[in-house]
Write a structure and sequence with these properties.
Blueprint: H1 2-14, E1 19-28, E2 33-35, E3 48-53, E4 57-62, E5 68-70, E6 82-83, E7 96-98, E8 107-115, E9 118-133, E10 137-139, E11 143-151, E12 158-163, E13 166-167, E14 180-184, E15 191-199, E16 202-213, E17 215-217, E18 223-228, E19 233-235, E20 238-239, E21 246-253, E22 264-265, E23 271-273, E24 286-288, E25 297-305, E26 308-327, E27 332-339, E28 347-355, E29 361-368, E30 371-374, E31 383-391, E32 394-403, H2 412-452, H3 455-477
């Protein structure tokens, strides 16, 4: 390379009045490269221009007569891959445009402009940058490499990687060697990779896209899903389009088990996969029909794709509201919003849900804080109280509690009194009825007692009555 520069330098200075400039140009493979060449716009007649590449001969030349000529490799099948636009000559611009540059186009070029006895020569080093990935579509967990190739390579150049317009920090902590990044494929590697090369004050760049397929929902491991006690919740597990996992399964991980080798536990009774394992599907989500506070913890979804087991851990965070009576005399109580994991919670908000006669829902009494104190439980503040908990990215979830008017709380003294009055009236009526029944039974008893004191009289009365009945029967027969 140094020898080539030396040859061009010597050739330029041997000529009388020669001027020589050396320029670095970077171009991405497949793009258009512009090799600069300044020429004077004050020529009295048309100059001759010749573009050559070291070890490859003529690229393009124009004689003073205006006749043009292309090198055989630059005019394949009548297509002009290299040209100098005539419209730029009047501006003193004799730059060469090369379309759809290839790696083999990299090298040293010379632009020589001759007008009379004045010769101007520019030397340009064209370097082609190409970014390639070992597999454009990688499966999560497999090894993938992204390489940056520069032809010819500028020794001493600085290389920096950008991923989705942000500086890339190696996940393994090992920096790239000679422009090559090697990592285990994860969702963090998905996107546009850009290699930026800096050399002698010039900078070039090239890009390539890497797609990592696997479990796309949730997009990252240990995603938290929030649910209220008694509600139904879905644990998402969706694979990338085109990936149909086999042997898909769900497990609940035991508390305290490590992330590298988590120990499986028992799934809740209300746990239900969305689709049977006998019917492979992209969507392997599962649901809990009725969440219990004890159902909190980590769950793992897994499936085999192309011989690689893909997994995703999901943490279920359960919320509930606990109530306590702070003062029976004053009729006050406290509601506490409790979650099994508060690491992402930054704010609590209490909302009173009110319904009118038409069933329309409205919200009142918005308060902040994890604990809600109700100083007086009355008709105004009874009903639904909802605790909303939020994080940095917005509302995470909510849980609702129903406040009822209970004995011993505010407003219950009058209620208790009315209940006691009704009970006393009822007992009084019952006692009066029982007393009347006893009096009647006593009268009947006394009457029988008086009759039994004269048995002879009772016999006479009974005999007379029988004889009367006998005479009436005989009269009817006649």
């Amino acid at each position: 390379m140094l020898f080539e520069y030396f040859i061009f330098g010597v050739a330029a200075f041997v000529m009388t009045g020669a001027q020589c400039e050396m320029t670095e140009v970077f171009a991405e493979a497949g793009s258009q490269a512009v090799l600069p060449c300044k020429c004077s716009s004050s020529y009295s007649y048309s100059p001759s221009i010749i573009w050559t590449k070291v070890n490859s001969g003529t690229v393009w030349r124009k004689q003073k007569s205006g006749l043009q000529h292309w090198g055989s490799s630059w005019y394949p099948k009548g297509l002009q891959r290299a040209r100098c636009p005539h419209s730029q000559f009047e501006r003193g611009d004799c730059s060469l445009e090369i379309n759809n540059v290839r790696e083999e186009d990299g090298g040293v070029y010379s632009c020589k402009v001759e007008s009379g006895h004045k010769v101007t020569e520019n030397v340009i080093s064209l370097r082609i940058i190409k970014v390639s990935v070992s597999q454009s579509v990688a499966i999560w967990g497999t090894e993938v490499s992204v390489s940056c190739k520069v032809t010819p390579w500028p020794y001493g150049a600085g290389v920096q990687w950008m991923l989705n317009s942000s500086p890339f920090v190696p996940l393994t902590g090992i920096p790239s060697v000679e422009g090559v990044v090697k990592e285990r494929a994860t969702e963090k590697l998905t996107g546009n990779w850009t290699c930026m090369v800096g050399y002698k004050g010039k900078q070039g760049r090239a890009s390539a896209t890497l797609t990592v397929k696997g479990i796309i929902q949730p997009s990252k491991d240990n995603t938290k899903v929030y649910a209220a006690v008694g509600s139904e919740v879905t644990l998402p597990c969706v694979f990338s389009s085109g990936l149909i996992p086999s042997s898909s399964a769900w497990e609940k991980l035991k508390p305290g088990s490590g992330f590298n080798k988590p120990a499986p536990g028992r799934l809740p009774a209300s746990f239900s996969p969305s689709s049977p394992s006998t019917q492979p599907s992209l969507d392997n989500s599962a649901s809990l029909r009725e969440v219990g506070f004890e159902d909190e913890g980590r769950y793992r979804c897994s499936g085999i794709v192309e011989g690689q087991r893909l997994t995703r851990n999901i943490q279920l965070v359960v919320a509930k509201i606990e109530s306590s009576i702070t003062s029976k005399k004053k009729g006050s109580m406290a509601l506490i919003c409790k979650l099994t994991d508060t690491s992402e919670v930054t704010d609590y908000e209490w909302v009173h849900v009110v319904y009118d006669n038409n069933g329309t829902q409205s919200f009142e009494s918005i308060q902040k804080g994890k604990t809600l104190s109700i100083s007086k439980v009355s008709e105004e503040n009874r009903g639904e109280w909802t605790c909303r908990f939020s994080g940095k990215e917005g509302i995470l979830g909510n849980v609702t509690y129903q406040v009822q008017l209970m004995s011993g709380l505010s407003g219950q003294k009058s209620s208790s009194l009315s209940h006691n009055t009704a009970a006393v009236v009822g007992l009084s009526i019952l006692l009066v009825v029982l007393l009347l029944i006893l009096v009647q039974m006593y009268k009947n008893h006394q009457r029988r007692k008086r009759i039994f004191q004269y048995p002879a009289l009772e016999t006479i009365v009974h005999t007379t009555s029988n004889e009367r009945e006998e005479r009436e029967r005989n009269r009817e027969k006649k």
